[in-house]
Amino acid sequence: MIHVNLARGFRGGERQTILLIQALAGADGIERQTLVCKPSSPLRDELAGTPDLKFTNARHQLAGHWHAGKADVVHAHEAKAVHWAWLHRKLFQTPYIITRRVDTPIKPKLSNKAFYRNAHYCVAISSAIAQEISTLTFQKIPIIPSAFTPVSPNPNVVKELRDGYSERFIVGHVGALVDRHKGQRVLLEAARQFQVTRPEVLFVFFGRGEDEQILRQESASLSNVLWMGFKPNIGDYLPMLDLFAFPSRNEGLGSVLLDVMNAKVPIIASDVGGIPDIVKHKKTGILVPPNNSEKLVEGLEALINNEQLRSTLSINAFKQLERFSPDAMMEAYLFLYRTT
After folding, report:
1. Among 5, 21, 37, 138, which is least packed, fewest CB within 10 Å?
2. What pLDDT score does 103 carry?
3. Whether the Cβ atoms of residue 239 and residue 263 lie closer than 8 Å to each other
4. Range(s) for CATH 3.40.50.2000 in the chain?
5. What is 2-147+325-338's CATH superfamily?
6. pLDDT tens-digit profile of 271-293?
7. Which part of the chain is the Glycosyl transferase family domain (predicted)?
8. Fold for domain 155-323?
């Protein structure tokens, strides 16, 4: 079993790679696993000590093939890994599986069609991504959603933060600070309006990314905006929130929403990409149109003014988390591996 993830950094896809490899360790039929990744990949530290796991260096798609050797199946976890898996099949006749986690359009190039049509399975983490993949291949697209592991928050962190803002209603956001993807400017526009109409509402942003500096500059005049930076232990911070806002412009699934649900924090999010696969409107959260600050403001106002609705949504959301466990994800992939 060979996993391939050639990403440089660490985002949701890398977290899911880790959860799957850990869940597969010791599973019936999985004798050993190999992870092909960059020498500097954060995955190495995160997976150190995982039983029967070997690492193979690959700085690019052409590297690491001979060292990884033959296997029963190759699993490509991100875009560059798809190229690697296709080439490995040419070299060793090894079947491969692709998991696509983003809903951005796939360019209809001949090479992309070859990569996807030669895969034994193309897996999507949401229905929106399955629809995108279907433009390149004629096969049925299995949908296997992302998983998460419940984390018990540090009560001292929660208490310290809440004590510091005891008079404020806190609306939080977690995500890479890349506005074209996560839509932080939409939430900042809402904050701009609330600074006048509801000054008790505090907007707290967690994360880092290429737009961090410009977003900080654009919000410098907003006294109701707080930038917290990246927190590896985000589960310690989510319980401080009264409400979670996720105004993404596009989203493969939005797996951080699962952590928010586990913290029993109500959610308002964009009706885009794979988000509706997790957030059911008026049942497990509130959905609003993407790129629309006015509708976001309306939704925020409705939730802030209705404590009972916030409670109902968060309880319903928490109840659905069992289907997003690492074991559920692992079993779904095991079925695909065994039928490849």
Report:
1. 138
2. 79
3. yes
4. 2-147+325-338, 155-323
5. Glycogen Phosphorylase B; (3.40.50.2000)
6. 998 899 999 999 999 999 999 99
7. 166-319
8. Rossmann fold (3.40.50)
